[in-house]
Specification:
Helix content: 25-40%
Strand content: 5-15%
Order of helices and strands: HHHHHHHEHEEEEEHEE
Number of domains: 3
Largest sheet: 4 strands, antiparallel
Shape: elongated
Strand order of the largest sheet: 1-4-3-2
Structural class: alpha+beta
Radius of gyration: 22 Å
Number of helices: 9
Number of strands: 8
Distance between the termini: 59 Å
DNA sequence: AAAGCCACCAACCGCCAGGGG
DNA sequence: GCCCCTGGCGGTTGGTGGCTT
């Protein structure tokens, strides 16, 4: 049996918000702000718990909320960011002005996940990508290691070309080879990472590289997925699957 | 026309981290 | 260091409306 919700316990209202409640909440926040969510409903005269008020405001009533369907660009951004960050909806939402984590989560579960699954199936689901040969349209030297570039500007989503080759948004080309799983990735010296955010994301391993790490430093390490970040801002990331011993295929820095 | 199914999405729940006493 | 409170997050649920049979 589930624990009785706090709202019910206190005789507070649950369920969909009425326009009247919305108006009360908006007026109150416009006038007094929302320094204390717990106290807010009482002050505003709402029979809701603070949590419910906060959620309603954050996800629906905030003036900067962007309504309407997600654009193709927004969906692509979500896919890229999800690939990088996993289910960190708030972090993804931070990169999409006017969109909420809840909204993004819903879009992911209702549209994007299915799209991804379909794509995976079509592409022979078990295929993993390995950076066998890398060609870049841009000189990798010109890429900032320091987080000064916007993520959308520097994200790299893998798409498949008609020739079966995969390219990212920079034209980095990947050759699909045999399948291999996370267990087969070489072990990384954990002392290298300033912040251990490693996680098992399906068959992939994700790591965060210190923002000030030199590119030399991290390509010298065999890795699954490599990212660089600076705090919350994931400004640069490089998606490479590298096998030990194949570093020669990487461009010289 | 009615029933069943499904997709969507707003809202809720439980957990966790951070801050203050 | 401990406890409590609060905000924030991600997972899940349930109501609603549209579609199919």
């Amino acid at each position: 049996m589930v624990r009785a919700p706090c709202c019910e316990k206190m005789g507070l209202k649950k369920g969909p918000w009425t326009p009247e409640e919305d108006q009360i909440l908006i007026s109150h926040i416009e006038r007094y702000g929302h320094s204390n969510w717990r106290a807010l409903p009482k002050q505003a005269g709402l029979l809701r718990c603070g949590k419910s008020c906060r959620l309603r405001w954050i996800n629906y009533l905030r003036p900067d909320i962007k309504r309407g369907n997600f654009t193709r660009e927004e969906e692509e951004t979500i896919l890229k960011l999800h690939e990088m960050l996993g289910n960190r909806w708030s972090a993804i939402a931070a990169k999409l002005p006017g969109r909420t984590d809840n909204e993004i989560k819903n879009v992911w579960h209702t549209h994007l996940k299915k799209r991804l699954l379909t794509k995976d199936t079509n592409q022979n689901s078990n295929i993993k990508i390995k950076a066998k040969s890398m060609k870049r349209n841009r000189d990798i030297d010109s890429r900032p290691i320091s987080p000064a570039q916007s993520p959308s500007d520097f994200s790299s989503s893998v798409t498949e070309t008609s020739s079966g080759e995969n390219t990212d948004s920079y034209g980095t080309s990947f050759v699909k080879e045999e399948s291999f799983t996370s267990e087969e990735f070489p072990i990384i010296d954990e002392s290298f990472w300033s912040e251990d955010v490693s996680m098992d994301n399906g068959n992939e391993l994700n790591y965060t590289v210190p923002a000030d790490a030199s590119f030399d430093a991290f390509i010298s390490e065999p890795a699954g997925m490599l990212c660089s970040s600076n705090g919350d801002d994931m400004d640069f990331w490089l998606r490479v699957f590298i096998e030990a011993g194949e570093m020669n295929d990487l461009p010289q820095i």
